[in-house]
Each structure stands twice: as structure tokens, then as C-alpha cells.
């Protein structure tokens, strides 16, 4: 299978020849959803289907299932629902630990999958609120798509 990098993917053109032999007029055709046998999917990957989070003192452990055709994942965080989200890391694993957090602050997370053709949608979100009470940490987690 050929290896494609991001620079080549932006310039990849697929040609299909269409001819008509009934007269000399120009014939036009439009094609969409063209696939190339033996070539990888030429689209960014979808978002992971879920995002799990566990709170600890000053930290949040995130985990998610692998997304189809993903090479790595972008993890972002915000303190407001809907962002703006700040880029934290690009990881190849399906988990990430965010540290140096303030207990009592609500954090919102998004994870998007990436490959050589771009970054997929940020549809997976988690809301986590931490409260430290007598060495016990409570958390609230919501996922949405």
C-alpha cells in the first residue's frame, strides 16, 4: 500500500476519462465518493466515540476508545463550556493525564483524532468538576456528541 504524507494528500488528484462517440460535443461528468483500491482513506478520522475521565487531587485522567484511521489525538481543555479550548497535547496513546489543576474548578475537555489527512471533529466532550473534601475527591462527568 502506498504511503501518503500530508503534503501529498493535499495535491492528490484522481482522474476519470469519460468519452462519448455519438457526436463532437463536449461531455461533462461529475464524480463524488471515488475510492482508490489499495489506498488508505483520504479523510481525517472521526472523533473518538466516548471520553472517560477520573478526577484526582490536582489531576484528571482521560481515556477514550481508538478512532478508525487515527494516528494520534489532540487533547484540549477549557474552563468555559464551549471554549475557547487550549491545546494540551498530541498523543499516540488513547489516554492522557492532565496535571497541575486547581481543585474546585470545572474543566471541559475535547479530544479529536488526527492522521496524515487532517484533524477530525471535536465532538467528544467531558465536563469535570473537582472538589476535595477531607481527602475525598468527587467528580461530575458528562459526555456529549
Task: Report on the architecture of this protein.
It is a single chain. This protein has 145 residues and is mostly beta strands. It has a domain of 93 residues: Immunoglobulins (Immunoglobulin-like). The protein is 4% helix and 41% strand. The strands form two sheets. Strands 3, 4, 6, 7, 8 and 9 form a six-stranded antiparallel β-sheet that branches. Strands 1-2-5 form a three-stranded antiparallel β-sheet, with no helix packed on it. The longest helix is centred in the N-terminal third of the chain and has 6 residues. The C terminus is likely disordered.
Name its key features:
three-stranded antiparallel β-sheet, elongated, Immunoglobulin-like, 145 residues, 1 helix, mainly beta, single chain, 9 strands
The number of distinct helices, counting runs of at least 4 residues, comes to 1
Structural class: mainly beta
* Rg from alpha-carbon coordinates: 22 Å
| Beta-strand fraction estimate | 35-45%
CATH class of the domain at 52-144: Mainly Beta
* Number of beta-strand segments: 9
Provide a brief overview of the structure.
With 145 residues, this protein is mainly beta. It is 4% helix and 41% strand. The strands form two sheets. Strands 3, 4, 6, 7, 8 and 9 form a six-stranded antiparallel sheet that branches. Strands 1-2-5 form a three-stranded antiparallel sheet, with no helix packed on it.
Amino acid at each position: 500500500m502506498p504511503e501518503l504524507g500530508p503534503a501529498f494528500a493535499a495535491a492528490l488528484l484522481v482522474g476519470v476519462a469519460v468519452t462519448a462517440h455519438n457526436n463532437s460535443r463536449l461531455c461533462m461528468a461529475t464524480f463524488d465518493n471515488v475510492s482508490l483500491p489499495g489506498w488508505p482513506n483520504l479523510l481525517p478520522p472521526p472523533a473518538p466515540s466516548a471520553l472517560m475521565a477520573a478526577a484526582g487531587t490536582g489531576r484528571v485522567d482521560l481515556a477514550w476508545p481508538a478512532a478508525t484511521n487515527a494516528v494520534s489525538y489532540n487533547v484540549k481543555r477549557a474552563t468555559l463550556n464551549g471554549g475557547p479550548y487550549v491545546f494540551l497535547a498530541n498523543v499516540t496513546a488513547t489516554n492522557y493525564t492532565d496535571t497541575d489543576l486547581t481543585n474546585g474548578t470545572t474543566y471541559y475537555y475535547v479530544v479529536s483524532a488526527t492522521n496524515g489527512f487532517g484533524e477530525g471533529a471535536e465532538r467528544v466532550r467531558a465536563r469535570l468538576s473537582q472538589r476535595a473534601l477531607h481527602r475525598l475527591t468527587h467528580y461530575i462527568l458528562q459526555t456529549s456528541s
